[in-house]
Design a protein that fits this description.
This protein is of the alpha/beta class. The chain is about 35% helix and about 15% strand. It is globular, with a radius of gyration of 18 Å. Bound molecules: nicotinamide-adenine-dinucleotide.
């Protein structure tokens, strides 16, 4: 007989969250989880993705590499919903042409990744935190990656920027700790999203990738969203300036360890 697992629920009624990159993948799951818990949610995404937006969902088209777009997203969120309690910096790219050793990297690809994955997080945080300082409260979550903690061949830009996303969260967390603002980062392992599906073959296929995680599978976007909701809740009130790995044990598994026997992911 299976044992009870317990349940968790969140009440985010009245709270306002701004999420970058909400049109798909982890960002979409984070938006949906906040909406399901009663929050008002805005998302800035480079894609125009608002079919029939709900009353409590504000869909903003914009490019997070532009400080103007980020400032506008914060202003529109506050003006639509009356405040800003949560910022989730999530929008990032990892274009196929970026999977090269550093001596083959191109300036155009490098710059675009820096502008979105690093500077974009800064611009949104800059304007969101300015508002949170006036409010005296807020939570910022930077979506980082397992690739911030350890590296691989062919990721000379993506991985180092993901490490910087953790240090951004630590620095902002320390800076604003006495202002009622907590800042954390989340480092997912491989999560089933369009970004990962696009590079699955480069990573050896699904079974191979799943097997590198001690839990034996790729994660779901909802599992990352669940961690974000917890970190943004009062249950995480003593957590700031740190990183949470949501990675099925990937980070603990040494490269020297015997691989697990392969099993099909079904
Ligand atoms: N999927 C994974 O396995 C995985 C693992 C570790 C970390 N991450 C991180 O999680 C985050 C989300 O990843 P994902 O897999 O859901 O990616 P994804 O490619 O599926 O979604 C990214 C979203 O960001 C948007 N976006 C891209 N550039 C933008 C810009 N300039 N301005 C605004 N929006 C923009 C895209 O339109 C898209 O909606 C990223 O920060 C990624 O680095 C993902």
């Amino acid at each position: 007989m299976s044992r009870p697992e317990g349940t968790v629920s969140y009440d985010n009624r009245g709270r306002v969250a701004l999420v970058s990159g909400g049109s798909q993948g982890i960002g979409m799951a984070v938006c949906q989880a906040f909406l399901a818990s009663g929050a008002h949610v805005a998302s800035i995404d480079i894609n125009s993705f608002c079919g029939n937006p709900a009353e409590n969902f504000l869909c903003l088209q914009g490019d997070t590499s532009s400080e103007d777009d980020c400032q506008r997203a914060v202003l529109q969120t506050v003006s639509a919903f009356g405040g800003l309690d949560i910022l989730v910096n999530n929008a990032a790219i990892q274009p196929p042409d970026s999977y090269v050793p550093v001596h083959q990297s191109t300036q155009a690809s490098w710059q675009r990744m820096v502008e979105i994955n690093f500077s974009g997080y800064t611009w949104l945080a800059k304007h969101a935190i300015a508002h949170m300082l006036r409010q005296g409260s807020g939570v910022v979550v930077n979506m980082s990656s397992g690739q911030a903690h350890r590296t691989a061949r062919g990721v000379p830009c993506y991985g180092p920027i993901k490490a910087a996303n953790i240090l951004q969260a630590m620095q902002w967390g320390v800076e604003y700790a006495r202002n009622g603002i907590r800042v954390v980062s989340v480092s997912p392992g491989a999560i089933r999203t369009p970004l990962v599906e696009a590079s699955l073959q480069q990573q050896g296929g699904e079974m191979e990738l799943a097997n590198r995680h001690p839990l034996g599978r790729i994660g779901n976007p909802e599992e990352v969203a669940a961690a974000v909701l917890w970190l943004c809740s009062p249950a995480a009130s003593f957590i700031t300036a740190t990183d949470l790995q949501v990675d099925g044990g990937l980070g603990a598994f040494g490269a020297f360890a015997d691989p697990y026997p392969k099993q099909s992911p079904d």
